[in-house]
Amino acid sequence: MLKVSGVRKVFGQGTVNENIALRDVDLELDAGEFVTVIGSNGAGKSTLLNSIAGTFPINKGSIEVNGIELTGEPDYKRAGLIGRVFQDPLEGTAASMSIEENLAMAADRGKRRGLSIGVDSERRDEFKEYLSLLGLGLEDRLTDKVGLLSGGQRQSLTLLMATIAKPKVLLLDEHTAALDPKTAEQVIDLTNKIVGKHNLTVLMVTHDLTQALDMGTRTIMMDTGEIVLDIKGSARSHMTVEELLDKFAQAQGKELTNDRMLLAQ
Ligand SMILES: Nc1ncnc2c1ncn2[C@@H]1O[C@H](COP(=O)(O)OP(=O)(O)OP(=O)(O)O)[C@@H](O)[C@H]1O
């Protein structure tokens, strides 16, 4: 489903600030696989997601989704295949547009359309049904501007928007990190619900190791631009956070005093 082969990303190449953020990364995800991505600050997690989303060109390697070669394609050309939610609730939605306009825009991602964002009654009913999944009462506020919503409501809406066009791959980049614990939990529940409903293939970056082991089917750990651990199956289902940290220490051969703090943030 998702095939990342030998992907290398260098920032500031040829300058004094040259930084190899991804070192020939290989990663394959089967359809319906839900992979959590962990690693200390600067490990390359967001760069991996950005490379898949086409935020910037990569220096080497290739990225395929469902057998379609995406390397070199701009992000708008990947829009129908890849859904994305960022940490900042303000990033995924347009504040000055209504809930229904935002949803219509998201539903049309990757499709050709004119400039107007039409919402007919059939579509409105569909949106209402979809919004009721959130359990936030937003189905009765279709014409409210998104700027009026709270961070949690907005992030829930973003999640819905990222998945309404049924993407092949969903990328979640610490999408609950900016929310208060209770709201974060609601958005996590919603994530599991939506992913399960559409059987989505997911890459989710998190700094919360408990969440990394609780959610999904597989966990990868990154360090200095490489995948240093890849855990799944029964090895993962019995793993504790302590064991995960010990494994990381073994893989890297270094003490984890700092990483312990960074990872458990
Ligand atoms: N646009 C950019 N320009 C220059 N360097 C960048 C850019 N984006 C990321 N980097 C660098 O690439 C490396 C990997 O960064 P990345 O954001 O992928 O790490 P991360 O694992 O997501 O970290 P965090 O957990 O702190 O978000 C870091 O050294 C970072 O400073």
TrEMBL record:
A GO molecular function held by the record: ATP binding
UniProt keyword Repressor, yes or no: no
Localization per Swiss-Prot or TrEMBL: Cell membrane
UniProt cross-references to InterPro entries, sorted A to Z: AAA+_ATPase, ABC_transporter-like_ATP-bd, ABC_transporter_ATP-bind, P-loop_NTPase
Keywords, comma-separated and alphabetical: ATP-binding, Cell membrane, Membrane, Nucleotide-binding, Transport
Membrane topology: Peripheral membrane protein
Domain ABC transporter positions: 2-249
SUPFAM superfamilies noted in UniProt: P-loop containing nucleoside triphosphate hydrolases
Cellular component GO terms held in the UniProt record: plasma membrane
Statement: the UniProt record of this protein carries the keyword Cell membrane: yes
Record's protein name: ABC transporter related protein
Organism per entry: Acetohalobium arabaticum (strain ATCC 49924 / DSM 5501 / Z-7288)
